[in-house]
Amino acid sequence: MKFLLLQNYQGGAGCDVPMDQWSPADIKAHIDFQLTLNQELLDKGELVDAQGLAAPATFVTFDGVGSPVVTDGPFPESKELLAGYRMVDVESAERAIEIAARASAAPGQHGVPIQQPIEVRQVMTAPSIDL
Amino acid sequence: MTVPIEDLLRELAPQVLGAVVRRFGDFESAEDAVQEALLAAARHWPVDGVPEAPRGWLIQTAVRRMTDQLRSDTARRRREDVAAQREPPPAPDVPDQDDTLVLLFLCCHPALTPASAIALTLRAVGGLTTAEIANAFLVPEPTMAQRISRARQKIRASGLSFGLPGPDERAARVRSVLRVLYLIFNEGYTSSAGRDLHRTELSGEAIRLARLAHRVLPDDPEVAGLLALMLLTDARRPARTDERGELIPLSEQDRTRWDAALIHEGTELIMGAVARGTVGEYQLQAAIAALHDDAKQASDTDWPQILGMYGLLARMTGNPMVTLNQAVAAAMVHGPAAGLEMLAPLDEQLPGHYRLAAVRAHLYEMAGDIETAKAHYRTAANRTTSEPERHYLTTQAARLHIR
């Protein structure tokens, strides 16, 4: 089963201070945590892909008539902007939730868990084989 | 045992493809047939052993594939065609290195988009499989297969012939080859976190192809310049990231970890090329890289000479990215104010580019204006599309924040 674990900039309890105001050691600890988690998932054969997304976001909407409307999205200081994702291929939904829980406990400023909400979405598949 | 076979196959790939195209005159099908022959060899040789004439084996296998293909095409069209039965005419006796050169020119043709040219060059000249190329560019294999197939169709549609360009075209076509090789190298060198393994292979492949180009165009100083630039840049790779893949800037790198053999080779190459006369942009970039590599520690760097070379390069190319580097050199020689002044006109040419913000941040920090430096580091961190770069720039802003 494949799951997409979506990480938003939306702050949890531990991440209302932007990262560029943490101490360099805290930033290092946070990045180390993410890399270690990716490596663990890779070693377990569960990692499909993990990517960070560049800012800012641009929103494109068809205007219903002819030309698309292009809006520059919010910068990462604001909420609800996708910052990155992991795709994992796991045995069960429980395992996907377990991984998301780990990610949400990533260390933030002063090593306090950021408690960032991680959105867990199962990837839809083709219909199963008719027998 | 598998590694030498793979090396052998990749070395033979362009020679075999050249021979098959010469027989059938159809680049598109020849490219497919050679790819299949290479895959067959990769399957059989490790088990059965390498045949005595590996090149002949590959040509024969590819020719058989093509003949089969022609036959089945003919059958499908229910047309009696002698073409399928016809024995291929004997290949003209042309030295192999000409074929490699012709292939390089063809695959890097300016009519192709850079992405197509890169993919086709890696497959037809580099002998990589579609799967390997897809892996290196982190896209699914069918996507890469389509990219390659469209590139070949474009070549066919443009009616490009399998031959060397005429003398009037030659210089422009060489430039186009160099640009493609440079892009492959860059793709590998500016790797993203966690993916550096594949990407390192890509810069290694670019170096191999540049060596090949230098072998078939030994008298072209820009080809030598590009190869030197790659070697002198790649020499610093071991010191450029820490064990976690995070960036270490040039001034803070442990220079004992630089690859002395590559630096030696690159320096010899660039000195030989420059001595030959016409100086081009790759030679200048290589010469600048050689000056950096020559400094035992950052403070030994010959900045006045680097500044002079960036000046030449800026006049030659008019490229604002060159001016950006020139501004750093100017700051090192004449102080940060001189560098910042040089950056002022770039807002128009590089609007919103993260590197402009990053260089400004660095120069404001040199000037002691910590608040402005911090703001520019933040802007740069928000704008970069490279994760290690974002981490580095965020950490710089954080470092100034807690001072």
Task: Give an account of the 3D structure.
The complex is a heterodimer of chains A (131) and B (403). The two termini of chain A are 21 Å apart. By secondary structure, chain A is an alpha+beta fold. In chain A, the strands form two sheets. Chain A has a four-stranded antiparallel beta sheet with strand order 2-5-1-6, covered by helices on one side. Chain A has a two-stranded antiparallel sheet with strand order 3-4. Helix content of chain A is 24%, strand content 27%. Chain A has helices at 24-43, 93-104; strands at residues 2-8, 47-52, 58-62, 68-72, 82-89, 118-122. Chain A has a single domain, classed as Dimeric alpha+beta barrel (Alpha-Beta Plaits, 2-Layer Sandwich). The mean pLDDT of chain A is 86. Chain B is an all-alpha fold. Among the domains of chain B are: 1-84, no CATH class; 314-403, Serine Threonine Protein Phosphatase 5, Tetratricopeptide repeat (Alpha Horseshoe). In chain B, helix 9 (167-189) packs parallel to helix 11. Chain B starts with a helix and ends with a helix. Chains A and B meet through helix 1 of A and helix 20 and helix 21 of B.
